[in-house]
Amino acid sequence: MVARQEKYGNVKLVPYTFCGKSRGVAVGKIGVSGVPVERVTPEERQSALDMIKATYSNLVVIDYTLPMAVNGNAAFYCSNDVPFVMGTTGGDRVALVEDTKRAGCYAVIAPNMGKQIVAFQSMMEMMAEQFPGCFEGYTLEVRESHQRTKVDTSGTAKAVVQSFQAMGLADFKEEDITKIRKVDDQLAFGVPAEVIDSGHAYHTYSLTSGDGTVRLEFKHNVNGRKVYAEGTVDAAVFLAGVVGRGRNGDGGDKRVFDMVDVLKAGAMV
Fold it and tell me: Any idea which fold 2-109+227-267 has?
């Protein structure tokens, strides 16, 4: 969670984090960039959030958790009228967006917070709009690798596949994406050993013509989590600004945004 301190850009880490039931790990303080952060169990989170809202103004919750928690967490934020940035993938994405809209809650919901990756994804969407069917007759192979703790298939890969489907590859389904989680396979895929468990995101989209004479590849490989952290803070600052304008009567009707909205607002650099 972050709370906005000033009108532009500066944020303050709220020293609390919601967590699930611990498995043999004592619930208490952890460190985030040297800041002690208190872990709050599901049983405590309502009372903790009430206290946090009373203490910190312009609060924005940042959610990075497990797919199974996505919809329940969003419902909790909406019921408490707390703006949130949802970076967790998985869950029922249609219900997530529609329920948030119905609740009138402010949110940025995106499967990828890396700004440059989002720009690539947007480029693919524009290509699908301007050149529908351009890869008709081609075959597609999609491989993605993330740390083993990521249990679901990459949300970014799923989104890019939707663009390829519009480009003539409608027979390729999300379940056809190859999810790489075994260490030996990740090393063979080109992932450096030092980031296999600490955090990485490797994606390759390979297209081959029907006669095998043409082959194209699109790649976006990320080592570490810095690019996502930077994009997440940009999303939180953007959302805090939108909320502030809305409360002052200067905002529009739109309340649920994605990372493209954040980039268009000037966060690309």
Answer: Rossmann fold (3.40.50)
Delimit the CATH 3.30.360.10 region(s) of the chain. 115-223
Residue whose tokens read 């081609």: 138
Is the pLDDT score of 255 beyond 60?
yes
Structure tokens at 132: 């529908």
Q: If you classify domain 115-223 with CATH, what class do you get?
A: alpha beta
For the chain, percent helix, then strand, then coil, each to nearest 5? 40, 25, 40
Query: Does the pLDDT at position 97 exceed 90?
Result: yes
Catalytic residues: 146, 150
d(CA 219, CA 29) in angstroms, rounded, equals 39
Residues of the chain with CATH 3.40.50: 2-109+227-267
Q: State the sign of the Cα–Cα–Cα–Cα dihedral 76, 229, 240, 253.
A: negative
Burial class (CB in 10 A: 0-12, 13-18, 19+), 26: exposed
25 pLDDT more than 80: no
From 86, 79, 83, select the one nearest 103 (Cα to Cα): 79
Give pLDDT, residue 26: 47
Strand 2-4 vs strand 59-63: parallel, antiparallel, or unpaired? antiparallel
User: What is the DSSP pairing of strand 35-40 with strand 178-180?
Assistant: unpaired
Query: Could you tell me the two tokens for 232?
Result: 């997440």
Which tokens go with 73?
């967490």
Query: Is residue 211's pLDDT more than 70?
Result: yes
Cα distances (angstroms) measured from residue 80 to each of 46, 69, 193, 211 = 9, 17, 42, 57
pLDDT at 220 over 90: yes
Per-residue pLDDT tens for 53-83? 999 988 999 999 888 999 999 999 999 999 9
Q: Among 55, 27, 62, which residue's Cα sits nearest to residue 41? A: 27
